[in-house]
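# step 3/5: fold
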Amino acid sequence: MTIAEIVEAVDGRITTGDRQEHNVVFGFSSDLMSDVLTIMQDNVLLITGLANTQTVRTATMADIATILLVRDKHATDDMKQAAEENDVVLLETRYSMFRTSGILYAAGLKAVF
């Protein structure tokens, strides 16, 4: 799925990054950043409600370039700056993590596990 397709599917918005045609193959939903560090896939979308700079740092360490904030969470200014510095795309949606994950799975995003 492209970032543009993800945004459309979850009625979301792009906060940082302008790579709408970037392809994402896998999805992973978690608020536990220690779990995120176990991911060994490429082209992963991190779906989380944790809106702080640690999320961007963890995603960068796990080579995840796209983060989707759920539950109407908004990226902080520090988070946006860290994302821009690390070429991470930040997305936001008002949907819950469960709803977001279900919509994207039904649309073709594959599970990591």
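# step 4/5: annotate
Helices lie at 3-9, 33-36, 53-61, 77-85, 97-106.
# step 5/5: archive (pending)
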